[in-house]
Amino acid sequence: MKRWMNLLCAMVAVMAGIAEVRAQVTVPAPCGPVPSANQLRWQQMKMYAFIHYSLNTYTDQEWGYGDESPTLFNPSDLDCRQWVKVCKQAGMRGIILTAKHHCGFCLWPSAYTYYSVKNSPWRDGKGDVVRELAEACRDEGLAFAIYLSPWDRHHARYGEAEYVDYFRNQLRELLTQYGDMFEVWFDGANGGDGWYGGANETRRIDRTTYYLWPETYRMVRALQPECLIWNDGGDRGDLRWIGTEAGYAGTTNWSLVNHDGPLDEQLLQHGLETGDSWVPGETNTSIRPGWFYHASEDGQVKTVSQLMDCYYKSVGRNSTLLLNFPVMPNGLIHPVDSVRGAEFYEMVQQTFAHDLVHGATVTATNVRGNDQRFSAQNTVDNNPETYWATDDGVTIASLTIDFARPTEFNRFLVEEYIALGQRVRKFTLEALVDGEWQPLKDSLADTDDGLTTIGHRRIVCFPTVTTSRLRLTILDSKACPLLSRIGVYNALAPLNPP
Ligand code: FUL
Predict the structure, then answer these.
(1) Whole-structure pTM value
(2) Which CATH class is domain 37-351?
(3) How far is CA 464 from CA 99, 409, 414, 493, in A?
């Protein structure tokens, strides 16, 4: 009897010990700057559209000088519901409209200027493009946002303090009269020659100080607390330009930069591993060569494989894709752009429809505290809030995916749990072929640095491989890696030829 009692006591002690160890397994501490709730929500959007439409549409220009007559704005069939339909079919989750481009013409009847739709023949001067689009977006479940050019080539007082008040008054109109906005876009092209109320001269401003951004930001935050600020010109906003309009982010792409100091093309493309602020990159590009519609570019609409290339190099490189659809003079998006957008999204959906990790077993070389809460299986449970984590101090670790049978694939998707910071610096992917681990290289990478950052989402494209085992190894990480998702796919379409 005594022996049994001793055994029971020993077992209870062991169980208590296990419980104690479990209780000690803590959630990983955040690593470096982390995203705000707004930035996390924005990152989930993945793709949203730009719509470029203004007097330029009627003058066949990209940058209006500011002296074009508002009477030129006269679309015969303007239909914002068509734009929304086109964008939705292209997989866009929201739309950013050029409410005012550099020429200064306003697509809404601003109370602060005559230079708007109210002095155009369209809808007898009673129309409001911003309102029609905001309503169409709301009805179809798309988010809405505006581009408001700080540079204004029409305004007589551009360059003086008075213009900054005008700019802010207009922004207030937009932020208070059209419902929720997910982003405001303050273009970086600033100052230069223009009409400026008839002065016809060149005006230079210091884009970091002239607009008094801190005050404007305070207003945006007060009026629309969930709205993100994109600013390429002055004060660092919440999001950064990716440094090119050609539709790609760097293969290495940190969502961090320093709050102060200039951003050159390298920093915009790659971010800064040691940056002190979370400012993720947004990749903007147009479905055509120009931002505005030009009939001469009807034959140059991006192909599905070019659009897929942009997708892999933006959404697949820890960025979002902001894809522009220009509006024609009649007020509609061209049918070719519309069909191309829909075909592109069909291709995205088809490529990522069957995740081959379902049914596979995922094991890890290290699991934080051997605790189920941080198990490797969390990467395939369809829950973005769970993740695989290693013990603190373990920054080299592997995940092995066992498909149980030979499986063909050519795409790998991986996501970090970025709510606790971006961590991974370097990783490898290997397939077990004829008993040997063969490295899988990124076919779209522009350098030989191998696989580097992951961030919100990284997609690696490689030639089709057949294997029953795939291994992901984190080789270097700022702190214990946290992966919330992995996915394996077999895309049928070939990659864009170089
Ligand atoms: C640039 C502008 O100058 C172009 O016209 C366009 O609006 C593009 C999205 O941003 O800086």
Answers:
(1) 0.95
(2) alpha beta
(3) 45, 5, 18, 11
